[in-house]
Design goal:
heterodimer; A: 160 residues; alpha+beta; Ubiquitin-like (UB roll); DNA polymerase, domain 1; five-stranded mixed β-sheet; 34% helix; globular; B: alpha+beta; Aldehyde Oxidoreductase, domain 4; 3 domains; six-stranded mixed β-sheet; 16 helices; 34 strands; 26% strand
Chain lengths: 160, 759
């Protein structure tokens, strides 16, 4: 099995690893780099549990081949907190009970961050559209939507 | 023994108690990505496991040649039925399901062989290299033909028949309505597919880290298959990515242990989504016929019903599911006469078993459609008809059992029906059925509104001794709780800490990992039972510790123990003379080990009569939908609910259960159906099996949480997990009927059922 040497930035840290051509970025993150925050829920890009940011854009890492990550900047759920200080989305998800089993949560947080990075003041409908690629089987989405709204308010307050 | 670590959960800040919205103690690791789900387990020496599954729904196995697979580089083991050292079969109610198929396969996807190799790619190559010579046979796929067909299993094709007869059998109503209904197969669709890690132990046993709903019953089944004493098989709960019933049966448990014991290496296995659709039981598809009798004033006189559930190839929990379907077939109404026959059969379709609502979901779809039909026949308001007939405490069920606990059904229905609706007609094309651009003609969008009422039993029924166990240890002012209750997302870990703080007046509560090695069974995380049963066990253990400690302190200080209280990390006398730091009096630990049992129940007799159930919970949903008649698309605009909860222990968590359960109900109403054709699943992916997204779900309006404390339940709290999935589907389907004037006998309602109706 031939393996490619890949160099990229993950959560601000330069990393390098070996991956065969058919390896997904998700498997590389999980099995080579030990970053198990992103999950495989479906393997077909339908559930969003594997969501990561690649150069700021939202992607299903199960649909990206690991060699495609060469030279990119990747952000996973492990990288959105500011050292020990949780990201406002993480904090509002905790306080707003926006997670139950929590296996969709890393992907939902990344998708919500991608939304708020691009649109700091989304409507409820915009939030629901932005998160429609992230399945959650536990919550019914209400508390997720509320928590994203609350985080948006906090982020706007902090930016002022 | 093993390097695998499952973290304890701990809270040590100022800690909310009963009735407050305490945050989850596992919340921070779940939002920062560090929580260890079963799929995240890792061992440096581990191998990867995989499963070869039957491509046929029915076939004889002539031969299996593993030689080419063994020869694949990196392969450490290829095992078949001949390698199962103990009981060749397992099962929740009957051990009827082979660990690995030996001579016959009975459903598409049945495990035939398992492989362990040093890389997932080697596993894949080895599975492809196994040569199985099948003689395909004609599958039995029609549940209606099961009883008259040749048996497909030595146990026969009838799994269970219950013929419930209650009251005067000659009653005929002045108004009679009849209907036939069909419910498709729903998948639990948890987001975390089956996975686990088995580690062989030096004592000849095995440690299995697994996502499950019931560690101890898994252990007993696995140990029997391995031919090992139960104490040599130790199961520890790994993080569970949702369950909803699909983790009540074994899936890869025995396979992992067989491979680990055979290779003497840790083995990890993770199902793909497609494999997961074949790897767990589903909600039973149902065919239901009903006839309701009433007088002209709208009093229900008699209900007749014939219920047929397709159990698929193996029994799983089908026997208990059909008991629920039969007992609750007519809904939460006072009915003096009934003839209900419930039958669940074996076919070559995918096995069916537990899913949230457990038999009561299917029948709620039937009985609520019947109530609407009856209201129409009587020209009566559907809410008024229901209100006239609702059960109350002291009433008799169809099983003859008198409800001795709380049954605020009228309040549940009234609060839900009276709740103001916020749903305005929207002009925004984004909010029309199908979203922007998909609606054919906004003029053809019709709005419908309807209400549905449902109920089911809490805890296990029919005489099952359904207990939970908990250990409490209070040392240096810190309480440590050990309980094998499976946290599957529902929030037991939060409640266990709240209960402990409430009873012992402490802030610091540590929950040790749930394991078979440290404590007795907690029973299953199902049947809405863990708040009551394991919550009850934790409460009882803490109370025993409190009594022991206060008795000792009272004796030391010469005061009456009844004068002492525990609060804010201190032991104090009511009179104020004594005020001691809890840590200073618990340098010697105080411990309790309790088993908590609920009130006993009885089996059903040959007429389906008996005090078979412990307690009941009731819910109502009102749905408002917009329907595009041209395209058959449905938008659920608003969902309002009231639920009988006994007492709310954690408001945010409780509402979360109501919202999440309703989403699964919406899914069953309009999109979720496992398509099985000739015994084969055609949509084993999230591309083709659709579950509701954030766009499909409306906000869920909570009209009321009805709090009437239930006698016997800890703090009066009833289980709340299942009712939200019961009446929600029926309400949405009824609202679609209201919008379209169509009968819509099939659930989920498919676009073609609407768009092509009458075509």
């Amino acid at each position: 099995m031939s393996r490619t040497h890949i160099t990229c930035t993950v959560n601000g840290d330069p990393v390098d690893f070996l991956a065969s051509d058919g390896t997904s970025l998700l498997d590389a993150l999980r099995d080579e780099l030990g970053l198990t925050g992103a999950k495989e829920g479906c393997g077909t890009g339908d559930c969003g549990a594997c969501s990561v940011l690649i150069d700021g854009r939202l992607n299903c890492s199960c649909l990206v081949f690991a060699p495609e990550a060469e030279g990119t900047e990747i952000v996973t759920v492990e990288g959105i907190a500011d050292d020990d200080r949780l990201h406002p989305l993480q904090q509002t998800f905790l306080e707003g009970a926006a997670l139950q089993c929590g296996i969709c949560t890393p992907g939902v947080l990344i998708a919500a961050k991608a939304l708020l990075d691009a649109n700091p003041d989304p409507t409820e409908t915009e939030i629901r559209y932005a998160l429609a690629g992230n399945l959650c089987r536990c919550t019914g989405y209400d508390k997720i939507v509320r928590s994203v709204q609350e985080a948006a308010v906090q982020l706007k307050g902090a930016a002022r | 023994m093993t390097d695998v670590r499952i973290d304890e959960t701990r809270t040590s800040e100022r800690a909310p108690r009963i009735g407050e919205s305490a945050p989850r103690p596992d919340g921070i690791p779940k939002v920062d990505g560090s929580f260890t789900f079963s799929s995240d387990l890792w061992h440096d020496r581990m191998l990867w496991g995989g499963t070869l599954r039957s491509p046929h729904p029915s076939a004889r196995i002539r031969s299996i040649d593993i030689g080419p697979a063994v020869a694949v580089t990196g392969v450490h083991a290829v095992l078949t039925a001949a390698d199962v050292p103990g009981n060749p079969a397992y099962g929740l109610e009957h051990a009827d399901q082979p660990v690995l198929a030996a001579d016959v396969v009975r459903y598409e996807g049945e495990p035939v062989a398992i492989v362990a190799a040093d890389h997932p790619e080697a596993v894949r190559l080895a599975l492809e290299a196994i040569v199985v010579d099948y003689e395909s046979t004609v599958p039995l796929v029609d549940p209606g033909a099961a009883e008259s067909s040749d048996p497909i299993h030595p146990d026969g094709n009838l799994i269970r028949r219950i013929h419930l007869r209650h009251g005067d059998q000659d009653v005929v109503g002045e108004v009679v309505v009849e209907g036939t209904y069909e419910v498709g197969m729903q998948d639990q669709a948890f987001l975390g597919p089956e996975s686990g890690l088995a580690v062989p132990a030096e004592d000849g046993g095995v440690d299995l880290f697994i996502a499950t709903q019931w560690l101890h019953v898994d252990r007993d089944q696995v140990a029997a298959c391995l031919g090992l004493a139960p104490e040599l098989v130790r199961l520890t709960l790994a993080g569970v990515g949702g369950a909803f019933g699909a983790r009540e049966d074994l899936s890869l448990h025995a396979h992992l242990c067989l491979l680990a014991l055979h290779t003497r290496r840790p083995v990890k296995m993770v199902y793909s989504r497609e494999e997961s659709f074949h790897g767990h039981v589903h909600r039973h598809p149902a065919r239901m016929w009903y006839r309701h009798h009433a007088d002209r004033a709208g009093n229900l006189l008699r209900v007749e019903a014939r219920l047929l559930l397709d159990g698929g190839a193996y029994a799983s929990s089908s026997g208990a599911v059909i008991a629920n379907a039969t007992c609750f077939a007519a809904g939460p109404y006072r009915i003096p006469s009934a003839d209900i026959e419930g039958v669940v059969v074996r076919t070559n379709n995918p096995p069916c078993g537990a899913m949230r609502g457990f038999g009561a979901v299917q029948t709620c779809i039937g009985h609520e459609a019947q109530m609407d039909r009856l209201a129409a026949a009587l020209d009566m308001d559907p809410v008024e008809l229901r209100m006239r007939n609702v059960l109350a405490s002291g009433d008799r069920l169809l099983t003859g059992q008198v409800i001795t606990g709380t049954a605020p059904v009228a309040e549940v229905l009234r609060t839900c029906a009276d709740h103001p609706s916020a749903a305005a007609l929207s002009e925004d094309p984004m909010s029309l059925p199908g979203g922007a651009g998909r609606t054919a003609d906004p003029e053809h969008v019709h709005r419908g509104e309807a209400i549905a009422l449902g109920f089911k039993n809490l805890l296990f029924s029919e005489g099952f001794d359904d207990f939970s166990s908990a250990l409490c240890r209070l040392e240096d002012g810190i309480a440590t709780i050990t309980c094998a209750c499976a946290e599957v997302g529902q929030g037991f870990v939060t409640l266990a800490q709240q209960i402990t703080r409430e009873v012992l007046g402490v802030d610091d509560v540590v929950l040790t990992p749930a394991s078979t090695a440290t404590v007795g069974s907690a029973g299953s995380t199902s049947a809405s039972r863990q708040t009551w049963m394991s919550g009850g066990a934790v409460q009882a253990a803490c109370e025993e510790v409190r009594t022991t400690l206060l008795t000792r302190v009272a004796a030391e200080h010469g005061v009456d123990p009844d004068e002492l209280v525990m609060a804010d990390g201190r032991v104090m006398s009511l009179a104020g003379a004594l005020d001691i730091d809890l840590a200073s009096v618990t340098t010697e630990p105080v411990e309790a080990d309790v088993e908590f049992h609920h009130a006993p129940t009885s089996p059903l007799d040959e007429y389906g009569q008996g005090d078979a159930h412990v307690s009941f919970a009731f819910s109502a949903h009102r749905a408002i939908v917009d329907v595009d008649r041209d395209l058959g698309l449905v938008k659920v605009v608003e969902l309002t609910t009231s639920q009988d909860v006994g007492r709310v222990l954690n408001p945010l968590q409780a509402v979360g259960q109501l919202e999440g359960g309703a989403a699964q109900g919406v899914g069953l109403a309009v999109m979720e159906e496992v398509q099985v054709l000739d015994g084969r699943i055609r949509n084993a992916s999230f591309t083709d099996y659709l579950v509701p997204t954030a766009l499909d779900m409306p906000p869920v309006e909570i009209a009321a949480l009805i709090e009437e404390p239930e006698p016997g339940a800890p703090f009066g709290a009833k289980g709340i997990g299942e009712p939200p999935s019961i009446s929600s589907t029926a309400a949405v389907v009824a609202a679609i009927r209201a919008a379209t004037d169509l009968e819509l006998a099939h659930v989920p309602v498919r676009p073609t059922d609407i768009a092509l109706a009458g075509a």
